[in-house]
Design goal:
It is a single chain. The chain contains three helices and 27 strands. The protein is mainly beta. Strands 12-13-14-15-19 form a five-stranded mixed beta sheet, with no helix packed on it. Strand 12 and strand 13 form a beta hairpin. The longest helix has 12 residues, at 2-13. It starts with a helix and ends in a 5-residue tail after the last strand. The mean pLDDT is 94.
């Protein structure tokens, strides 16, 4: 009896790092219609990486070469076929989102260091590490606007990778369990070297991309399974309050929306980093989410791997859905479209996927 009481006390009272918030998860869509199950991702070819793992984002340089960010801080550059791999620089943190500015500098959203720039000589410069006097806690994705401003997501101000041994996965997981919606979109102006808050109130702000006309941003909100369209004119906008400057263009997605990239013919590519899971059933039960964190991870029921990337138009119409229900794909977080095919980002794999153009 004593052991049962001790166990009950542990499950109910042991401290956990989250203060879970109640919300109502929307119903998950069936794998039919635009999301009909298929195996189109099974044709991907794997490019083995020589200097690390976890190619979480891919950007194409001015010279056409592939650039990707690895978990050990390395920025890796290679030819389109994966040959001639070379280490360009190391951020000393965990680089995630990548993009190039008009001067050819590689701009990096580093989850630990903030917003960085890497010059042609490999020198790393910190562009922004604070906003309004507070740290940028979890820089994640970025997009360079036509006017040169850099818009980027700060996924969570509650859980930072630096607090958890540099693990973006642990910090992201805790943010999902808490659901407190502290993510935000920031803007850095290179002309004034200042950073401002564009919008806040996101449950894990993730991927971001500029609209074709350069007036709006598309932002993935992982913790609510949706994608927003937000005016660049927004300033300190709370997306939890109705505003003509923000609207949801994709909702009730079948997985966690991650990286967003601009594709060809008006397409926007979106990676779904895992399927919906038991957290949905616990969305309105904060106590259960906190209790789950007291259970050893080895006893957690983990969803089977499921590769999935989408393409949609700016008005929210899904025009492509590429999947791997068999779980052979790496943990896909996004896709970058080029003449050579579709490069598939992933969070922890030792290879970069590439899908031939005739497969999508």
């Amino acid at each position: 009896m004593l052991s049962i009481l001790v166990l009950a006390a542990y499950l109910c009272l042991w401290p956990v790092p989250v203060d879970a918030v109640a919300w109502q998860a929307p119903p998950a869509p069936a794998y039919e219609g635009v999301y009909a199950a298929n195996e189109r991702l099974r044709r991907q070819q794997l490019i083995r990486l020589q200097h690390g793992s976890g190619p979480e984002h891919v950007a194409i340089g001015p010279d056409g070469r592939i650039h990707t960010a690895l978990a050990n801080g390395t920025i890796l550059r290679m030819a389109s076929d994966g040959s001639a791999q070379e280490r360009v620089a190391s951020t000393g943190g965990r680089p995630l989102g990548l993009g190039f500015d008009a001067q050819g500098n590689l701009i990096v959203a580093d989850a630990i260091k903030g917003l960085l720039a890497i010059g042609a000589d490999g020198a790393v410069t910190v562009l922004s590490a604070t906003v309004d006097g507070s740290p940028i806690a979890f820089a994640n994705a970025l997009t360079v606007a036509p006017d040169g401003r850099i818009y980027f997501t700060d996924s969570s101000t509650r859980f930072t990778p630096g607090q958890w041994g540099g693990s973006t996965l642990e910090a992201a997981m805790l943010d999902m369990f808490e659901g407190s919606a502290t993510g935000r979109v920031l803007a850095y102006d290179p002309a004034t070297r200042t950073t401002r808050i564009v919008a806040h109130g996101f449950s894990f702000a993730n991927g971001i991309v500029t609209s074709a006309d350069g007036s709006s941003l598309y932002v993935a909100e992982s913790g609510r399974y949706r994608v927003w369209k937000i005016s660049m004119a927004a300033d300190r906008l709370d997306v939890r309050q109705a505003s003509p400057l923000a609207s949801v263009v994709l909702d009730k997605l079948p997985g966690y929306p991650d990286n967003l990239t601009a594709g060809r013919d008006g397409r926007i590519w979106l990676g779904l980093a895992g399927q919906r899971n038991d957290l949905d059933a616990m969305s309105g039960k904060p106590f259960l989410r906190e209790l789950a964190l007291r259970i050893p991870r080895a006893l957690w029921r983990m969803p089977a791997p499921y590769g999935h990337v989408l393409a949609f138009t700016e008005d929210g119409k899904v025009v492509a859905s590429l999947q791997d229900p068999g779980g052979a794909s790496l943990n896909i977080t996004g896709a970058t479209e080029t003449d050579a095919g579709l490069y598939l980002h992933n969070v922890d794999g030792k290879a970069l996927g590439r899908l031939p153009r005739d497969a999508f």
